[in-house]
Amino acid sequence: MEIGQILGFWSVALMLTMTPGADWAVVINSSTKRSVAMPTIAGLASGYIAVVLAVSIGLASLLAANPIIFNVMAYAGAGYLAWLGSNAIFKSGAAISVENENASSVNRHFFKGFSLSTLNPMALLLLLVLLPQFTSKTGSWPMVYQLLLLGSLFVICVVFVYSAIALGAGKMINSKPRLGNLVQRLSGLVMIGLAIWLIAGHLISLF
């Protein structure tokens, strides 16, 4: 595996994580408090680690090839995204009290991020298709190690880019509370729109 392949994938991974989408909407919606944003980002990253592991050991290929499992993932992911979006819209003005920022709250936000990234069939297909393109069949490294290395680079990009987004959005939102409520509602609308787009795209692919 050559350094050029690694750098090439790193640049692609960076561009992907810097492209607005469902992850961005969730991160921005959780950016009002660091105690909320960091567990959410950790959950997203952990979910992508699970996806990378699935791709590396060949499990992702089996999941993608099974229409029943893939359909369940697609609908569950879209439904969960729509639920997160509706919560962001209708609870945007709700204050989070200090006493609620306990281990239970941290676990809830972690699970939110983890569920979003693992139930996203597009992320599964993207990594399933993208990772092998930057590997070398004639290299000295076994294929599974190459996939794990590239997947780790992707997860690192997720952590750094999403942390920067949360930090920037958090500062802006906290400095202007009214703007914060508007941003949270808009992020909720984006999540619902992406859920509809995901379901529509999946239904179209079936015909």
Automatic annotation (TrEMBL):
Q: Which regions span the lipid bilayer?
A: 6-28, 40-62, 68-90, 110-131, 143-165, 186-204
Q: Which UniProt keywords apply?
A: Cell membrane, Membrane, Transmembrane, Transmembrane helix
Q: Give the location in the cell.
A: Cell membrane
A GO molecular-function term, please? amino acid transmembrane transporter activity
How is this protein situated with respect to the membrane?
Answer: Multi-pass membrane protein
Task: Name the domain of life this protein comes from.
Answer: Bacteria
GO CC field: plasma membrane
The keyword DNA damage belongs to this UniProt entry's keyword annotation: no
Q: By what name is this protein known? A: Lysine transporter LysE
Species of provenance: Candidatus Rhodoluna planktonica
